[in-house]
Structures are given as structure tokens and as C-alpha cells.
Amino acid sequence: MIGCVGTMQEIRGCLIFYAFMLMAVFMLETCVGVLAYMYEGAVHEELARNLNVTINNKYHFDKEITKAVDHMQTTFKCCGTSGISDWQYSRWARHNSTDLVPASCCISPNMSCVQVPLDIHPSNVHIEGCLEHLEDFVRIHLIIVGGVGLGLSILQLFGIVFSCCLAARVKDEVSL
């Protein structure tokens, strides 16, 4: 709004203020990008910790979390955080006397695979954990968000340059 008013009315102060605000937002975006890059390794640890807590303590006892975990395991064709053994000591397993893994771990949804012993290689259970799939999903979407952010920051740089050029031109026209 300030940039539009400054441009339409040719008010140098508004244009300079607008350029300053664009520069401040650009600097904040740059700082966030640098911090995100620096803490990228922490994403793995946080995802692993939160996924373990969710599977061990909240699955089956919170309907929304149960739906989300089932959707993740079905979509990514995986089971547990690092594998099917993650379910062995979960709160869900302690309250469930017959099933060893949730039905969302099954390869074929119409076959019963939930009572397969965990010490043998189950033929109808996804044995791969979900952590790597979830990390890849998050990384891909972070790259998309980063690309959009980069594109917007380039537009901001153009806005800064054009605001400064227009402010300089307005100053020159006034002094004539």
C-alpha cells in the first residue's frame, strides 16, 4: 500500500520507506533460509523422536493421530518408525492381545496379516519403517517451499531496486 501511494503520488519518503521494508523482509527471509539449512540435521532427529512418541503412546488412543499414522503407513507402504518391531512395545500392543501390527501395515488390505509373528519374515506386512519416507516427503516439500521463497525474494529485490530508482528520479524531478 505504501509503495503504491508513493508511486502514484510520487512521494519520495514513501518510496524509500517501502524499499526499506522490502529490504527488512528480504533479510528476514535470508536469515530463516540460513537457519533452516543449518538445522537440517535436526529435522531427522525431531521426526524420529516425534514419530516414535506418536506410535508408542498415542496410536489408537487419539482418533486423528490413528488416522494420520494409518494414512502414512498405507501411502508410503511402510510400518512403524524403523520397522514392524516398533509396534511390539507400544501402548497399542499392550492393549491389543491379538494383533501384532496395525492393519495399515498390511500389503494386501483384504488379507489378515496383523497376527503374523514378528520374529519371522512376514510376507504380507510392510517391513520397512516410515521414517525415511516421511523425511523424503518433508524434504521434497521444503524444496518446493524454498523455491517459491527464492522466487518471491527475487521479486522483492526487483521491488527494492525499482523503488530506489523511482525515489531517485522523484528527487531529481523535484529539484529541477
From TrEMBL:
SUPFAM superfamilies: Tetraspanin
Gene3D superfamilies (UniProt xref): Tetraspanin
Transmembrane segments: 15-39, 142-168
Cell location: Membrane
Keyword terms of this UniProt record: Disulfide bond, Membrane, Transmembrane, Transmembrane helix
Cellular component GO terms held in the UniProt record: plasma membrane
Primary subcellular site in the record, as a coarse category: membrane
Keyword Disulfide bond among UniProt keywords: yes
Membrane topology reported for the UniProt record: Multi-pass membrane protein
Disulfide bonds: C78-C113
This protein's record includes keyword Secreted: no
InterPro entries the UniProt entry points to: Tetraspanin/Peripherin, Tetraspanin_animals, Tetraspanin_EC2_sf
UniProt family annotation: Belongs to the tetraspanin (TM4SF) family.
Protein name as it appears in the record: Tetraspanin
Species the sequence originates in: Elysia marginata
